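Batch manifest line 217
LIGAND: zinc ion
JOB: complex structure
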Amino acid sequence: MFVGHYAASLALKRFENRVSLGVLFLAVQFVDILFFPLVLLGIERVNIVESFTQSTHFELEYMPFTHSLVASTLWAIAAYGLFRWVVVKKQSVAIVVALAVFSHWLLDLMVHTPDLPLWSDTSVKLGFGLWNNAIATYALEAVILLAALWVYLRSTSPMTAVGKYGMTVFVIFLLLANIANIFGPFQGDSKVVMAISALASYFVFAAVAYWLDTKRR
Ligand SMILES: [Zn+2]
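JOB STATUS: finished
ARTIFACT:
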């Protein structure tokens, strides 16, 4: 899943307005932000296979440290610890950031083919496989993102014109980007190009979300 993860960011902001949306945008993609460098280091493994599913070209072979249930839980606990005792130091902020980190696994579970391990054991892997249907994948991500946008817009109020319209325009941009992501032609990019473009989008999207969030209260 790609832009659908940001549904968790927008919805969770409602429960704790002291946490920046930029932080929540990074938190929901945290395990993917780790995944790409680990792939380049050869620690986790993905094979690029054209049309492996209708929605992706990834055969996700081995990713216990980022996308297993155990690792996702441990990363969420680590995020809790960081925001509880090191930065911000607020229990409610720590809980919201931890939930954002863990939400990645739950949403990936909907779309991935059975490639999400419980831990390093490769015999049991989970994934409901929505990626095999590109239209259903796109629809799921769009519906949850729009629903979460609605929650976010209702739970915050604009301070400027940018604050009023910016987040809606940004979500529309994300939905358009996801058309290219899911339905676009196979580029045959190398893993390095794939990693750089994914990481660049995660950080740029988080920066935009941070900035737009400062225009609302
Ligand atoms: Zn992922």
